[in-house]
Amino acid sequence: MTTSDRRTTEWTVRGTDREEYGEAARVIGEALLAGDDPDTVLERMRPIHDFEGYERVRVAVDDTGGAERIIGATNHFPFEMHLPGGLRPVAGVTGVGVWPTYRRRGVLSSLMRRQLADIHGAGGRYAALWASEGAIYGRFGYGPAVAETAAWVERTHAALRPDAPRDPDLTVHLAHSSEVRADLEAVHGEVVRTRLGQVPRTAPWWDRALRDKPEERGGKGRLLAVVVRGPRGPVGYALYRTAGKWESGGPQGTLHVQEVRATVPAAWTLLYEHLLDRDLIARIEFEFMAVDDPLVHLLANPDRLVREIFTSLWVRLVDVPGALAERTYTAPVEAVLAVTDRYAPWNAGTWSLKAGLEGARVEATDAAPDVSLDVSHLGAAYLGRTTLTGYGAAGLATEHTPGALARLDAALYRPDAAFNGVIF
Ligand SMILES: CC(=O)SCCNC(=O)CCNC(=O)[C@H](O)C(C)(C)COP(=O)(O)OP(=O)(O)OC[C@H]1O[C@@H](n2cnc3c(N)ncnc32)[C@H](O)[C@@H]1OP(=O)(O)O
After folding, report:
1. Selection from 396, 341, 405 nearest residue 369 by Cα
2. What distance in Å separates the CA atoms of residue 398 and residue 391, rounded to the nearest whole number?
3. Ligand 1, closest atom to CA 100?
4. Ligand 1 center from residue 71 Cα (angstroms)
5. Which of 144, 201, 342, 404 lies 20 to 30 A from 39 at CA?
6. Mean pLDDT, the chain, as a whole number?
7. Residues having CB within 6 Å of any atom of ligand 1
8. How far is the CA of 44 from the centre of ligand 1 (A)?
9. 133 belongs to an annotated ligand binding site
10. What pLDDT sits at residue 44?
11. Would the annotation count 105 as a binding residue?
C-alpha cells in the first residue's frame, strides 16, 4: 500500500506485548528519525518499558489483505506529577509514531481516540506529553501548559551578584554521577514535593538520567555530578559534562548542564558558582531551565543569560469535571463553562465551576455559559501560566459574560512556574 492509497476511516487499534513491541519500536524509531538500527533503538527503550510494562502500548494495524502489519503506535507511562493541588496520576503519553508511508490517513487520530478512552476508562483525569511538533496535539485536546527555556551564558559575563545568599555550613563535592546517586535521589525527591510539573523518578528513570555510555557522549566528557551538602544531608546537585576546545586565542571549552536541582537558596549560589566558573570553559549551556530559575535573579548581569523559550508539557484534561474539582485555586471564582471536546465526548457540555480557597465543585448545568472554550484551552491553563484571556483575545475562546475569562485566569494563576525538565 502506498501514500496514494488514502484511507482515512478508523484503523484497528489494539494492545500488544513485550515480544511484539520490537515491531512497534521499529515504527516509532523510524518515525522519530532515530537513525540507529532498530535493535539499538529497542535496547535503549527496553529498561524503561520492561519496568513500566507493555499493557498500555497501543498499536494501529493495517489488516487489509490478510496479514496484519503494525503501522503506528502510542503508549503512556503511569506517572505521578505535581499539579496544582498535589501529586496526581498523569498519563505520560510517549512513543507516538506512524510508519512514513501511512501518514495523514487518520492513523494517529485512531490511536489518540482509543488512548483517551483507555485512560478515561481506567479513571485517569490527565494526560501530558512533550510534542515533537507543536502543530500536532491541539486537535486532540492538549494545550501548551508549560514553558521552559534552553539557556547559555559566556563565562566572562557569568558572575553572580555579591549579595547572592550564602551559608557557611554548605560544602561542594564533585564526583562521577554514579558515585553520588543516593544524594541526587534525596534532593530530587524533595524538589518533586515543591515544584509544579515534576515527576518522581523511579530506578529505571534514574538509570536513564545517569546513562553514561562512552559511545553516546557525543564528544563530551563523563557525566559529572556536583553535590551541595549541609549538616542534614544533600541540598542540591547539578549534572553536567564538559567539552574541551583549544584555539589559538585560548581555551574555548563548553560546559553542558543536564539538570540542576536545589532545595535551599544558598545551594543554588554554590551550584551556579561551580558551574559558571570552571577553568578553561568559555561558555555554559543549560539544556532545560525553568522560566523562573533562580539564576535569572542571581546573575550580576541577567541580560547576558541568553534564553530560548519552548513549550515542554502539553496537558490534556481527560476528565474535565474531575480535574477542575480537585485543583486548588488562587482566588475564588464562579463560572459556567461550555466545553467542546472532539476526542473525549464525555467532557463536552456545560459545566458549572464554583471554586474557593478551600475547594471546588463542578457540576453539569443547563445554565447559560459565561465562556465557551475548547478542552485544549483548559489543559493549557491548568498549570496556571497560560491564560484563557489569551485564547479570548485570539478569538478562540468566547466570553459571554464580560470579565469572565480574566476572573478565571486570576483563580487559575500560579505564581510558581511549572518545570518538567525531562523529555519522556
Ligand atoms: C508524545 C510523542 O511521542 S511526540 C512524537 C510524535 N511523533 C512524530 O513526530 C514522528 C513523526 N510523525 C509521525 O509519525 C506522524 O506524522 C504523526 C504521528 C505526527 C501523525 O500521524 P498521522 O497518522 O499522519 O496523523 P493523522 O493522519 O491522524 O492526522 C490527524 C490530523 O493531524 C494533522 N497532523 C498530523 N501530523 C501533523 C504534523 N506533524 N504537523 C501538522 N499537522 C499534523 C493532520 O494533517 C490531520 O489534520 P486534519 O484532521 O485537519 O486532517
Report:
1. 405
2. 8
3. 14
4. 13
5. 201
6. 96
7. 31-32, 93-98, 103-109, 129-133, 135-136, 139
8. 24
9. yes
10. 87
11. yes
Q: Which residues contact 401 (CB under 8 A, 6 or more apart)?
A: 335, 370, 371
Q: Which domain holds residue 290?
A: 148-311
212 within a domain of the structure (yes/no): yes
Last residue of a domain, one of 288, 311, 334: 311
CB 327 within 8 A of CB 142: no
408 or 36, which is more confident: 408
**Residues carrying an active site annotation:** 137, 424
The reply to whether 153 and 301 lie within a common domain is: yes
> Measured between alpha carbons, how far is 115 from 95 in angstroms, rounded to an integer?
12
Is the same domain home to 152 and 115?
Answer: no
Same domain, 296 and 321: no
Note whether 243 and 192 are same-domain residues: yes
- Ligand 1 center to 131 CA (angstroms): 10
The domain that holds 383 is classified in CATH as 3.30.1050.10
- More confident site: 195 or 5: 195
Query: How does pLDDT run across 47-69, given as a tens digit for each residue?
Result: 999 999 999 999 999 998 889 99
> Is 216 annotated as contributing to ligand binding?
no
